[in-house]
Write a structure and sequence with these properties.
142 residues; alpha/beta; Rossmann fold; four-stranded parallel beta sheet; SAM-dependent_MTases_sf; Methyltransferase domain-containing protein; Methyltransf_25
Length: 142
């Protein structure tokens, strides 16, 4: 059962779309982890478990990971603690990237950058072929 306060908070953050996604996540950035973790969100943990199965422990340190739609950095936070030290994250929201950049005392991500993923024709050429693994959790929106 969720609290009435959390329920009301959730209701204020429904109905966003591709045109307002940046503003939505800028607004919710500081509350994101509390909202999702209170609801039992665990995709970041499952994502890391899969990555651990795919990459031997002794290879994780230099394995280049691209966390697409990294949001507040939940994936990077867990993966960095488990030995992945070369994680780059992108998100459409500069506000939420600020939260991600602080995870694990600033060590979860080696770089973060603002990038809207809904426009594949604008995907930066310099990122193509740069990474060994791509992660993407909770990034689907209408």
């Amino acid at each position: 059962m969720i609290s009435e306060e959390l329920r009301q908070e959730l209701l204020t953050h429904t109905g966003f779309d591709q045109e307002t996604i940046k503003e939505h996540y800028d607004e919710v950035a500081l509350k994101y982890d509390n909202i999702y973790l209170s609801l039992g969100y665990y995709d970041h943990i499952k994502c890391c478990e899969i990555a651990e199965k795919l990459v031997p422990e002794d290879k994780r340190g230099d394995y280049k990971v691209f966390d697409m739609g990294c949001g507040s950095g939940l994936v990077g936070e867990v993966m960095q603690k488990r030995g992945f030290n070369s994680i780059s994250g992108c998100d459409a929201s500069a506000g939420i990237l600020g939260v991600a950049a602080k995870k694990n005392e600033g060590k979860a991500y080696c770089e973060t950058f603002e990038l809207f993923l809904g426009q594949p024709e604008k995907f930066p050429e310099g990122l193509k072929g740069k990474f060994d693994m791509v992660t993407a959790t909770g990034i689907l929106a209408q």
